[in-house]
Amino acid sequence: MLSYLKENRNGQFLMVGIAMTVLGFVLIPIHDISSSLAFYIAIFFLGFFAAKHAVVDTFLKKALNVDLLMILAALGAVAINYESEGAVLLLIFAGAEVLEDYATNKSTSAISELMSHIPETAHVLKANGEVIEVQTNALQIGDMVVVSKGEHVPIDGYVDRKSKVNEAALTGESVPVEKQVGEEAFAGTINEGNVFYLTVNKLSSDTIFSNIVRMVEEAQTRPSSISKFIDRIESTYVLGVLITVPLFIIILYSVVHLSFQEAFYRGMVLLTVASPCALVASATPATLSAISNGAKNGVLVKGGAAMEALSSMAVLYTDKTGTLTFGEFQVVEYEADEYILKEVVYMEQQSSHPIADTIVSSFKELTFDTVDLTEAVEEVPGSGLKKGNITVGKPSLFNEYKDPYLYRKKAKEGYTTVLIGRDQTIVGYLSLADQVREEAADAVAGFQKQGISVILLTGDNELVAKKVAEEVQVDSFEANCLPEDKINVVLKKQAEGKVVGMIGDGINDAPALANADIGIGMGSGSSVAMESSDVVIVKNDLSKLLYSFNLSQKLNTIILQNVIFSIAVIVALIIFNLFGLLGLPLGVVFHEGSTILVILNGLRLLRQEKRDKPEGTVTQ
Ligand code: ADP
Ligand code: MG
């Protein structure tokens, strides 16, 4: 906070202003004129940015703001020789402004701090064994990068040996993660084990990390409806105050017959206490604090609007693979001759589905000598792949196919089934198994406790869906969903007036994610899914979503507290002033004090909540 004050112009002005105000108070009993002079200088420094803001908004944007009211109140105070009150008023106002900036900065600094962790250059191992230094943004897919012990990983890629990586920058989890051979390591994380080689699999502009940075930047342009509402009424409210204050002075002077001095003084008190400073600060600092807290815990909420939607979610639909399960399948059984298997592996190389990754890595030793590499592979998201007369994918694609070897029956029950067909005949099958994530079950229970129903929507078969649904204890499930089925389910629930959340990771989920009130993408999923969502869970950990949901609820409570408190203070102070019971000094203190309290209340959301059961600890 201190360094923040020193480094920013408004922070520096605030410090000069504070010094001059203190000097002014010290000089009061000693030398009247120099005391006033000190206050004038203080008012200049403290009011500089507010005045600038007031002028710019009023004339260029044609919108009135609280800054204008504060400047007028301070000038009014000076006019009736209350310069110390004027200085204190602006001092607290400028202080509040700096606090607000601090919150805004905090939400981006978590990210820009990460940015600085991405090395600008990387060490590339060339085919001849030579290691050269290359700009990170010039790395190509397939390049081999050397990551030494203790170094930041410069780019996303596959590791060539077992290693340990600290992913706190992405997930907030400081316990290092074990990476097995061939697993993906991400830009911005730290190699805490021994040196490893990384095969680049994404350009530096497409890494999870750079996606995150871009999305956080976009987030700030999407305010919540309460922020928008407050922004909208600010201008009207200020205009109301600007009209009421002179009227109030005239009435006190000509109807109540106070002296002009007295009437003007009371007018200045009204101007000060009626300003909606606290109200204006009710939502934004709190929202940014919550977003920043979420980001530190591996959940990116794209703006206040998304926070708001998350907090009011009534139903949560979830995909299965990669969300409730690890998405790391094992081929438990298969049958197909080698010629066709080669085709399948070649085809799956073109897909980003977790099933595809599994099939490719399970049959690594196969070569493509007999495969026609010129023929196009076509993916039907959520179903499978086609290449010429060969089709690979879910059983329902093969309803019209002949099955002379009875593969449909042979495919193991309760496992994810992939059939292989050629010309209208089924020529092979694979049975795949995946594992449920334990934390997914915990998170689902957590959501249910909050009254949210969790429903599984999967493209997989009935038996697998049922098994997972039972293990994770979701409220209900729908199997054999096509991408359009997922959208229809979402739309139908929305038509019932429910706020609908949807979690997914694949291209086939993207349309449903975009249609849901709150689309939640998995960070390790496809980038289309991430783009279509309002919230991204950086690592596929559902408990992080529960954390953010709780955060969004707390945010609502805090905004509500702030709004009620600010309005109550304004009303109370106006009533006191009507009866002439409030002096300018106390008016300033109460009014500005309420603003500071409201902002501090919002900043509470920066604090990390302790999770019930932190990973890595043993509960007895
Ligand atoms: P989930 O809802 O579990 O995420 P998807 O909707 O992504 O599942 O996929 C549904 C089914 O489609 C899978 O169980 C699988 O049988 C088939 N499928 C999808 N993509 C592929 C692929 N690339 N290769 C083979 N089969 C696939
Ligand atoms: Mg999926």
Strand order of the largest sheet: 10-22-21-20-11-18-19
Please give the share of residues in helix.
40-55%
With helices defined by DSSP (H or I, 4 residues minimum), what is the helix count? Answer: 22
Strand proportion, as a percent range, falls in 15-25%
Shape: elongated
> What CATH architecture of one domain do you see?
3-Layer(aba) Sandwich
Q: Structural class from helices and strands?
A: alpha+beta
Give a quick account of the main beta sheet: strands, pairing sense, barrel closure. 7 strands, mixed
Q: Ligands bound here? A: adenosine-5'-diphosphate, magnesium ion
CATH topology of one domain: Calcium-transporting ATPase, cytoplasmic domain N
Mean pLDDT comes to: 87
Q: What value does the Rg take, in angstroms?
A: 31 Å
- CATH homology-level superfamily of one domain: Calcium-transporting ATPase, cytoplasmic domain N
Return residue spans where pLDDT drops below 50 for at least 5 consecutive residues.
612-620
Query: What is the strand tally?
Result: 22
